[in-house]
Amino acid sequence: MAASRNSDGSVVRAGLSHVALSLSVFGMLGAGAVGAAFLFGDEAAGAPRVELALYSEQDGPPPLLKNRSPLEALDAHTEDHEPSLGVEYEDAALLEDGDEASMTVTEIASNAGTGPKALARAPIAGFVERTPAGELPKIASDGRTPAQVYARPFTGASDKPRIGLIVGGLGMTARHTETAIRELPPEVTLSFLAYAPNLQDWINKARAAGHEVLLEMPMEAYDYPNVDTGPLTLLTSAKPDENVRRLNVMLGKATGYFGVTNYQGARFATDAAAATPVMKVLKDRGLVFLHDGGAARSALPQAATQSGLDFTVADRIVDSELTADAIDRELLALEALAIQNGSAIGVGFAYPVTIEQLRLWAESLKAKGYQLAPASAAAGVVARS
After folding, report:
1. Angle between helices 240-251 and 272-284 (to 10 degrees)
2. Residue 63 falls inside a structural domain
3. 253 and 125 assigned to the same domain
4. Residue 225: which CATH number?
């Protein structure tokens, strides 16, 4: 019995010794860690922190996607960041013919007091025709065209390369539209989707801030109708009279634009037979067509030539990749093209990162020896008041 009690005591004492030793070791390690933090730690790491997001908080749907290249568009606003060809209209409230939509618009002060004066308010007398489809542009009796009177006047040096910028997808999201009008230089051309609610109000605000305006025509994509560009989409399968009717409805939604551009449309661009009647109407209305350059094997130049329409293709889409560095690289490429050809046109979309990079780039452009010109001037349109 005595031997048993001695054996039990030894086990207890050994256990207590191990516990004490473990506590001592952990205590020394903890003290060492605390000391190291005081000696080598970053004091600022524990301070309050502010994180800046790449995209601003939105008050509505993200900007609708423009066709970036054949069968390819990047939607950086999707949660999984997968490429998407779709266009979500659930919250964008696309308008059927004759439908109305309401939107609260914050008044934007014109920058005419600190920079170039505002452009004339539309419509300008003599350049509009009242029709069942609305007020459509028309060529004046003296031969002047809506393209000429609604383009932003530009007098530039002949020895400096010109660079024009078009920012599109505007009118569907108020915050992005307001930012583009307010933050971008007045020489930047703004492009509005024909479906935009309160379209005339937006165009008026853009022109009051000195921006010339294009109207975006939804055209058939390769994956239509999965890529749903709305009820007025110009289609290769539609009869010419139907496409002309849809075109006139879109043209009649507002006044003040000097020309049109495409919204999507890679499939429509391949069909000269479908495109030619549309080009003829635009020619007869005194407008020009600026294509974003995002369609391969395009038949649009051929259709425009046959119709006598002034047609220009942009040189670069500057935000196919939505990072600041990638946009800057595209802008450098645009500068190189301007040196080579005397002028160049870049197209971007109303993403916050695009607007910010264009704003920063434009601030340094004059010092580099370039001229920021309205897209109309870079395309050869001579403004006539």
Report:
1. 40
2. no
3. yes
4. 3.20.20.370
- Residue 52 domain flag: no
Containing structural domain, residue 360: 111-378
Please choose, from the candidates 278, 193, 199, 255, the residue with its C-alpha nearest in 3D space to the C-alpha of residue 230: 193
For the segment 258-266, the average pLDDT, to the nearest whole number, is 96
Backbone φ and ψ of 193, nearest 5°: -70, 135
Q: How far is CA 252 from the centre of its chain?
A: 23
Reported as type and span, the H/E element at residue 167 is: strand 162-170
Residues 6 or more apart whose CB falls under 8 angstroms from that of 329 comprise none
Are 312 and 175 within one domain? Answer: yes
Sign of the CA dihedral with 235 first, then 212, 343, and 76 last: negative
User: Are 21 and 135 members of one domain?
Assistant: no
Q: Which residues contact 227 (CB under 8 A, 6 or more apart)?
A: 85, 86, 87, 221, 264
More confident of the two residues 201 and 7: 201
pLDDT in tens, 210-249: 999 999 999 999 999 999 999 999 999 999 999 999 999 9
pTM above 0.85, yes or no: no
Residue 92 confidence (pLDDT): 38
How many distinct structural domains can be found in the chain?
2
